[in-house]
Amino acid sequence: AICGAMLPLFLFSAKDAMISPPDSSSPIETRHKEGSSKLVGIIFFYIIMHSFSAHKEFRFILPILPLVCVLSGSAIRRIHLMNGAKNRRRNIIVTTVFMVLLNFPHLMFLATIHQRAPIAVTEYLSEKIEADSGTNSRRKFSAHFLMGCHSTPVFSHLHVPFTDIETWTLDCSPSCRGNASATCESEVFERNPLEFVQDSYMFGDGVTGDEMVCGANCKPLPDFIAIYDNNEKVLKPFLSSVV
């Protein structure tokens, strides 16, 4: 997945470096093949070592992307040399245009559509909190994110000058996920969102005596709750009836 459109080029270069015999008549090609072999070894060693980690994230293997690019560039060079010097300039231009066009749809999708909602929700909360703080001079707000691990960037985008924003996210820390006998808050919520909310929050005004019973670690309802749309269908009727 990390190679993307470069995968065929990377595999070609890896095969050439690890399997094909070196050209003993060319010291330059020999050194080039030795360098490529070391890069391939580093890439596979890095992937294997991270495969043993209990906490896996795609971003952890991003450091090998430059090495993949180097090997892909080596594959392009190799292909051009195999075709000879004739029309080399045209081949380079065609290859460059082809790679750009092949990657441009991915670029546009990742830059404008993919993971857009996590940024949009924090920007909305920032705008809403800024407007409310300007209207009634409030300086403290709370926002709870009842979603999976690292679903939103939170404080990299959620910040309003001179305003204290208290946030809370479901626990899905490595220590929790690495413990086979433990059940993370995110897992409990996904199993039964309504029951989790009823156990986690206190409802009622505390004056009329209509407070509902909640769990030992229950907390007041926040000003804002961010949830996925499928969970909203389950929670909205209940929250609308008690807020």
Molecular structure report:
- There is one protein chain.
- The protein has 243 residues and is mostly helical.
- Helix content is 55%, strand content 9%.
- The protein has nine helices and five strands; from the N terminus they run H-H-H-H-H-E-E-H-H-H-E-E-E-H.
- It has helices at residues 7-18, 27-51, 65-82, 88-112, 116-136, 174-177, 185-191, 193-200, 229-242, and strands at 140-146, 164-169, 201-202, 219-220, 224-227.
- The protein has a three-stranded parallel beta sheet with strand order 2-1-5. A two-stranded parallel ribbon has the order 3-4.
- Helix 1 (7-18) crosses helix 3.
- The protein is elongated and about 80 Å long.
- Residues 205-210 have low confidence and may be disordered.
Oligomeric composition of the shown chains: single chain
- Strand line-up in the sheet with most strands: 2-1-5
Which structural class best describes the helix and strand composition? mainly alpha
Distance separating the two termini: 45 Å
User: Largest sheet, if any?
Assistant: 3 strands, parallel
How many beta-strand segments? 5
Poorly predicted parts: 205-210
Layout of secondary structure:
Elements: H1 7-18, H2 27-51, H3 65-82, H4 88-112, H5 116-136, E1 140-146, E2 164-169, H6 174-177, H7 185-191, H8 193-200, E3 201-202, E4 219-220, E5 224-227, H9 229-242
Parallel strand pairs: 1-2, 1-5, 3-4
Helix pairs in contact: 1-2, 1-3, 2-3, 7-8
Which properties best describe this structure?
about 240 residues; mainly alpha; three-stranded parallel beta sheet; two-stranded parallel ribbon; 9 helices; elongated
